[in-house]
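Section: Multi-chain targets

For targets with more than one molecule, the full set of components is provided together so that the structure can be written out for the assembly as a whole rather than chain by chain. Components appear in the order listed by the source. The example entry contains three components.
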Amino acid sequence: MFWNLPYFTVVILTFIAILIILTKKNLVKILLGINILESAVNLLIISIGYREGGVAPIFTLAPSMTMVLPTPQALVLTSIVIGVATSALLLSFTMVIYRKYGTVDVEKMKELRE
Amino acid sequence: MGVKMMRMSKIVRISADLLYPFIVIFGWYVIMHGHLTPGGGFQGGAVVATGTALVIVAYSYQDIKTMINKTVLWFQESGGLMLFIGAGLGGLVIGFPFFYNWLANSGSLFGTTVIYGPNPGELNTAGFLPLMNIAVGTEVWGGLTMVLLYMLSGLEKREEA
Amino acid sequence: MITDFVIKNAPILVVAIPLIGAFLCPLVGRISPMWRKTWVLGIVTVTSLIAILLASMVLTHGAITYVFGASTSDLTVPIDSGGIPVRIIFTVDAMSAFMEVITALVGFSVILYSMVADKERSNLEQYYTLFLLLICSVMGMVTTGDLFNFFVFIEISSMASAGLVAYRVEKGRAIEAAIKYFMVSTIAAIFFLFAIAILYGQYNALNIAMLAERLQFTLLDKIALILIVMALATKCGAVPMHFWTPDAYTLAPSSVTAMLVVTSQASLYGLFRFVFTLYHLHLNYVMIGWFLIIIGVLSMVIGVTMAIPQKDVKRLMAYHAISQTGYMLLGVGVGLAVLGDSTQLTRFGIIAMEGGIFHIINHAMYKGLLFLTAGAIIFRIGSRDMNRMGGLGHSMKYTMIFFIIGALSIAGIPPFNGFASKLLIYESVYLFNPFLAIIAMVVSILTLASFVKVFHSIFMGPPLPEYSNVKEAPLPMLIGMGILALGILLFGLFPQTVIDTLVHPATAALLNQSSYVNAVIGGV
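Its structure, encoded as tokens over all components, is:
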């Protein structure tokens, strides 16, 4: 049961993130929700690679040859970089929306209705 | 008041000046040893960009505008990307597929052979991986600093408008 | 020697050349605008030619694989890896070749069109950089044979197209459309990454062929299938998740909209690739097939009924794009629902899938042409509101002819190409379930009705005094539109040739999972 703790954390983080994205009205808070969702997926990928008693998968001065999987670490690195670029782009859009509309409230952005 | 007088006090500015070279050196250490220790291109580039962000926060945006030239950052970004793609295409010119490690085990730059198994790491190994790490590190440094500068300039425009 | 080089490395050159073009575009643009135009046009021409060459090679020789970083480009299974393809592999089979031909054709016409249409904006270097990145990512999406690589290309295309949609700020409305589009895209891609994590955790493989071999259909695989289908259906604009489509297609510059249509088709290609090649007969094909049929029918009906009362010409066309995506989902869904039953499959399943797949290329061409004509009209007049237009048929004759070709084609009137693919869909879906075919025909009639309304309000009537000095659209725009119109006419007049050459191998490649797996793992 103890070894499943990362997976429970993933589920809890995903639910919190989806709740934030669906119910909050401030655009910056919705972006934070997207970031939390991204972190949940990265945590899931990393915890898949764990092997019991393993060390970091690096050959330099390695204490033992039982290592955790290195491929999930590469996947998560790519995902984090994509997350940085996504957050930067979304925040730039939010800044320009604030300058043009004067508000970051999602309820008030109804220019493009119908 | 606006953004003009957001400059921090003298102690903060001098501490930032003193810390900046150490952060840059640590960042380049992380970049260069990417094939031996945890780290690599993006991680080291983010550390170096943090150093630049420290200097930007300590001084106000008005002072930084004169110190950092956006054209240099633009060339840094493009240069990093071209070095990355060029290292990949080098294999195509020789006759191997794309991203073939044409420098590994070859005796020239970064070409020493490594035996399988735990070893004290040697810097001169792993083919074109250190080159790609340097390319990505430079590119990430330039890119993140440019994002910071553009966001700050947007803030300043809003204050004036 | 150059041709040998190109032939050997063609799968990677279609992705690498636009990438290099995108990165060098700012540096070249600083020299002069004429250099930048020549550079962009040259890169797109070379890419289109290599894509068509690659497609012809694949259609004659069979699937081509290209391994990154091996010592030869065919070494998919390294000797010391124990029979596992460990590197990133690009697998080009007939369906990928089909999508590449579409991207090459539409990409070339759109760049030719945008040479003139986007010329008086600022920051044009960034615009063309993002455009070339979008073309590179769409080419990458259709050629890759690796799950995580597909995810990376989806994210690159979302970011590039979000930047392009927000390009003309228009007092903040374009930014609102772009932020809606980008948030929906990002959340869909994150759920796709969940599915990748689940599949990787179970089978320790990221290559599609390797996963197809190792798959046993457990409960976790069902969850992964649902996540993949929902994420990719969101990205292509099917109905419960279509809310980003009207805003993004309306407020983007017109050349970008035509390319966004191709991007949605590439996500549709991904959906078909994963459902047919990755899961094949393991999944409960009747249920998933009916699910695709239901969202297809909903897309058709909701798209067309929301298109009729629109006043904005591009928003109307965007709703029609949703409706036509429904046709493709309907066709392929019928094919999927009868996948295990081989008599029904040969009777009408294969024809339904051919109809759906043929509709992809037809839709890219005529929807691209319609958006480009709308862009030409907006370029000359300056507003998108149809209530203020009128009588343009006197001055913009060529644009009117291209619009007529596009509108008749989307409504399914012979001899244009929409008729050929819609007839295939009607025939086969009628044999499956007559009620669905009747809905499809009614939607087609409503499509014709709404385009008659658009045609009448834009082009017919006496020439209005405020538009008296409106001239015809400039020549590069007309050439770009002309290429697509010529394609529509040729595909409409010789549909059997197109089906035999392009569509039938693509359908056969989708239905035949073992040929894909053998191409990568080599008959083990």
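Chain A touches chain C through 31 residues (CB under 8 Å).
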